[in-house]
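Supplementary Note 2. Why include the ligand at all?

Several targets in our set were suspected to adopt different conformations when bound, so apo predictions alone were not considered sufficient. For every target with a known small-molecule partner we therefore ran a joint prediction. The input for manganese (II) ion is given below.
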Amino acid sequence: MQITVQHGDILRAPADLAVLVTFEATPLPAEVAALLEAADYSGRFRQTTLLYPRNAVAPRRLLLIGLGTLAAVTPDALRQVAAIAAQRARELGVATFTISPQVGLALPPAVVAQAFAEGLALGAYSYNRYRTELSSEQTFTVAGATIFSADVAETLRGVATGQTVARAVAFARDLANGPGNVITPAALGQAALELGQRSALRVTVLEKPQLTEQGFGGILAVGQGSANEPRFIVIEHGAQAAGQPTLCLVGKGVTFDTGGISIKPADKMDEMKMDMGGAAAVFGAMQAVAELGLPLHIVGIVCAAENMPSATAYRPGDIITTLSGKTIEVLNTDAEGRIVLADGLFYAQRYEPAAIIDLATLTGAIMVALGAHATGLMGTSQPLADRLVQAGEATGERVWQLPLWDEYRDSMKSEIADLKNAGTRHGGAINAAGFLAAFVGDYPWCHLDIAGTAWVDHPLKAYQTHGATGVGVRLLVAFLQAYV
Ligand code: BES
Ligand code: MN
Ligand code: ZN
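The joint prediction is reproduced in token form.
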């Protein structure tokens, strides 16, 4: 969707559809109030009313969308109403529309514009790659939207950022929605190389012989049961600029998680194609930081493997030696994410980073704890955790911290190896983090468990659609922008 910006009054500009985003308990413009029964529309959050003004104002159709009370408006609310606008425009079959908030909004124009641009683009997102028969509504795309604003320059700036971020989210969603037979570890490697080409990022993809030679025992063990060989992927932004802090983003890239020999139940196993949602977030974030030209050294690291049961699969009881030299007793082959991350987190230490952040669809336990409304955070650096929680508030990709006391790490010690990969069910998400902590040395580190937030059967927000959410991309970009 092309987004343009215009100065002036949205009610005076001819359009097939104008979307006026209004506040509860704030009077509507008189010419709009005259078009409806006051009792029918209060402007409460997400309420909509479609009006046909018949020349009372310039637009042919006028869609009112409520934001709730002025004081309570957040960027996420703007993102949601913009998504609703894009969806209604598609339903109505209008090629272009205009949109504006009612006057009085106190948020900075660039913030409003970024949220609008993200909502418009993501509201129009749908994953149609494998549909060969599309209805006319599915093939119809809204070509453009014009945002009306009193500050054109700032609005243009926000739109540009929002479009970059939305493209990155769509990229992550496309990867995570991709089926396991297509999005293999090799395909992730290929996607990284293509990303490097188009965004001028330095990309290294290690294949199985190199992983063997260099001792990536964790990734190799998880991947050994699959005909789709594992990959280790490094995507680097800003390596040439000296003196900037280095931040490592590590993503779990399990392209399909059957559970392995400790096989999962059949019900909903198909959704385990999204077990590379952490990797997808890293891909998206790397694309965005490159496009935004952030003055930071950012290293994206993806541990890609497929977890299959087979004659060559790793088994419960196996003891594996990871890249770090630390050994892991495998008690459950379904706790594979922490094993691949062990290598990726240890690898990150070579950059002597100011921070390591990993993103992983790691545990069902985080869904038990937080449901679908927050990503779980555990880590070793409170200032880093605070920054991520802050980014979560700013983006609506909410993050909630859980404790990581020493006892949780101790619970992952093995009787016969350095660590075991599964502890008790109780506190399962934190036990997993306690395991990961063994591989980050003394570097400031936070782990984001996105198992509950990476996928939605039914959208929780208007800018989501069934399937992958691309969670983590907007969070990381906001975190990194604030880090500069
Ligand atoms: N990929 C799963 C976690 C998951 C579950 C992600 C549901 C998204 C939705 C992970 O590899 C896993 O299987 N974890 C196990 C760990 C257990 C065996 C210690 C779990 O959470 O049950
Ligand atoms: Mn698993
Ligand atoms: Zn998994």
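Residues 254, 257, 275, 336-337 surround zinc ion (ligand 3) (CB under 6 Å). The chain is about 35% helix and 20% strand. Comparable summaries for the other entries are listed in the accompanying table.
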